[in-house]
Write a structure and sequence with these properties.
The structure is a single chain. The protein is mainly alpha-helical. It has one domain (about 1-230): Orthogonal Bundle (MetI-like fold), CATH 1.10.3720.10. Helices cover about 80% and strands about 0% of the residues. The protein has 11 helices and no strands. It has helices at about 1-15, 20-55, 60-70, 75-85, 100-125, 130-135, 140-150, 155-170, 170-180, 190-200, 200-230. The longest helix has about 35 residues, at about 20-55. It is globular.
Length: about 230
């Protein structure tokens, strides 16, 4: 019990002192996860909108596949991307493996289905009368789409927040594609795993506290958005 208490207090002191190594790890995590979430949003939101409002062959199958990918293990994504980025892979000549770019690629693949699926769900809840009214008033396709997106904005933002929460806490992709290089690809989750293996619990506990704070903030934002959507 004393060991746990001492580790926790030392971790709080490390956070309070703004340890440079701790801050660098947090910065890398936020940069990689934030970039991947932004890219996934740019891809997933329009894709979700298109799927929700278009009728085409295989639509149900596509939605089923997207729903299945929500539970995609991070190590599977890491292995898949690794096969393409390795030296003997299709994109091996670009030397992307063990870089932040490789981590971002893997994380984007992981969360695009999340953003897309929940965007489909958010837009599908919007009454079709909004679209018909906009068209009746002379709105073009883009203006009509904007009206619908505005009505579904809380659900769309919630999907983006959920996606960020997924990647900020993942470890498989970051470890397999980033390599856990100090000061470059070491994230909070990979650093926690490394410090645990080394028997250095203070930094690991400090990162765990920071990760819990971020996760708590993500959930507060998500609950707030969902509350606004019900008003």
């Amino acid at each position: 019990m004393d060991f746990l208490t001492d580790s926790f207090l030392s971790a709080l002191l490390l956070i309070w002192s703004r340890d440079p190594e701790l801050l660098l790890i947090i910065e890398v995590s936020l940069k990689v996860s934030g970039t991947s979430t932004l890219i996934a949003s740019v891809v997933g939101v329009p894709a979700g909108f298109f799927i929700a409002f278009r009728t085409f062959p295989g639509k149900r199958l596509l939605i089923t596949v997207l729903n299945t990918l929500l539970a995609l293990p991070t190590v599977v994504v890491g292995l898949f991307v690794y096969a393409f980025l390795a030296r003997r892979g299709v994109f091996g000549t670009f030397d992307l493996l063990y870089t932040q770019k490789a981590m971002i690629i893997g994380q984007v693949i992981l969360i695009v289905p999340i953003v897309t699926t929940f965007t489909i769900s958010a837009i599908s809840r919007i009454d079709d009368s909004y679209r018909k009214t906009a068209l009746t008033l002379g709105a073009n396709i883009l203006q009509t789409a904007w009206v619908i997106v505005r009505e579904a904005r809380f659900g769309i933002v919630a999907s983006i927040i959920l996606a960020f929460g997924r990647v900020i806490a993942e470890v498989g992709i970051s470890m397999m594609l980033g390599g856990n290089a100090k000061g470059f690809t070491r994230t909070m989750t990979t650093a926690m795993a490394l410090e645990y293996d080394k028997g250095e619990f203070v930094l690991s506990v400090a990162l765990g506290i920071v990760l819990l704070i971020i996760s708590f903030g993500v959930n507060v934002c998500l609950n707030y958005i969902q509350g606004r959507a019900r008003v």
